[in-house]
Amino acid sequence: MLSTDSSKRISFDRLICDEDLVIVYERHDRIKAVKVQKGSVFQNRFGVFKHSDWIGKPFGSKVLSNKGGFVFVLAPTPELWTLVLSHRTQILYLADISFVISYLEVVPGCVVLESGTGSGSLTTSLARAVAPSGHVHTFDFHEQRAALAREDFERNGMSSLITVTVRDIQGEGFPEEFCGAADSVFLDLPQPWLALPSVRRMLKQDGVLCSFSPCIEQVQRSCDVLQSGFTDIRTFEVLLRSYEVREERMMRTEGDQDGDLAGPFSRKRKQRIPHDANNGSGETTTTTTVMARPCREARGHTGYLTFARLACS
């Protein structure tokens, strides 16, 4: 992650320090955020890991436990932070986040307004996109949720780029101090059409709005209101299919004319295959291959992304 504080800037050439936040990576579906503290330990199925052993190592290092097991200690990038943060609300994931940042045309130096903050998944990625000279102003009507998000941004070194404010944007609109100052606006609200008159005043000329809604009825009503004052109105649904890449053992029977593989076997299962498994029809050998398969759990519909550009007056 980027930070305006050079002493705390997370980069791949900076060494891990005491009090840093790191991502402990066991495997793609088992990762955890840990604050490094001298004298503390991290325990998992691979053994006990001393935090003091991590200090002084570069991000991305492979570290060993007392049993010889290992994990990787990674930099807390927004992509990894999205996978480990506390879910106080439903969050946006990487497919939607990357699409939003691209279509909102967010670049370093931009001023972005967001409502609501929720768990801060998108907010963190927006902050990295506007760094080092831009700023994200995020609003949430729920005071406790806003306070927890503020604490998270402190932990991951992004607080200098993000300002969290408690405010009901649907009922009150954005503060007038941002009138004509926002390059982009993002809405994640149950009734986004109520905030659109305020959005029109906040956006700079040619500024872009994105509204996230889980239901198509919300999209239709928002688009009706967007016809006044906005142009280039588009709605997208982003679907992502992930694949798991893993190494597997394949059994081959000598003498097969076409050389087809007899089938996949994991390392553990292959150890139980007897040498005469082919019943004397030929010598059985194994080869190692890398296979890619769709993940068993796939995220389907998350929501609809509606984009619109402020019309030139």
TrEMBL record:
PROSITE patterns associated with the record: SAM_TRM61
A GO molecular-function descriptor: tRNA (adenine(58)-N1)-methyltransferase activity
Keywords for the protein's UniProt record, in alphabetical order: Methyltransferase, Nucleus, S-adenosyl-L-methionine, Transferase, tRNA processing
Region described as Disordered: 251-288
Catalytic activity line of the entry: adenosine(58) in tRNA + S-adenosyl-L-methionine = N(1)-methyladenosine(58) in tRNA + S-adenosyl-L-homocysteine + H(+)
UniProt domain tRNA (adenine(58)-N(1))-methyltransferase catalytic subunit TRM61 C-terminal: residue ranges: 69-309
Top-level class of the enzyme under EC nomenclature: transferase
Top-level division of the source organism's lineage: Eukaryota
Protein localization: Nucleus
Positions of S-adenosyl-L-methionine binding: S119, G120, S121, L122, D140, D168, D188
GO biological process, any: tRNA methylation
EC code(s) of this entry: 2.1.1.220
Entries under SUPFAM superfamilies matching the protein: S-adenosyl-L-methionine-dependent methyltransferases
Entry-linked Pfam families: GCD14
Gene3D superfamilies named among the record's database cross-references: 3.10.330.20, Vaccinia Virus protein VP39
GO cellular component: nucleus; tRNA (m1A) methyltransferase complex
Recorded family membership: Belongs to the class I-like SAM-binding methyltransferase superfamily. TRM61 family.
Name the UniProt record assigns to this protein: tRNA (adenine(58)-N(1))-methyltransferase
Taxonomic path: Eukaryota, Viridiplantae, Streptophyta, Embryophyta, Tracheophyta
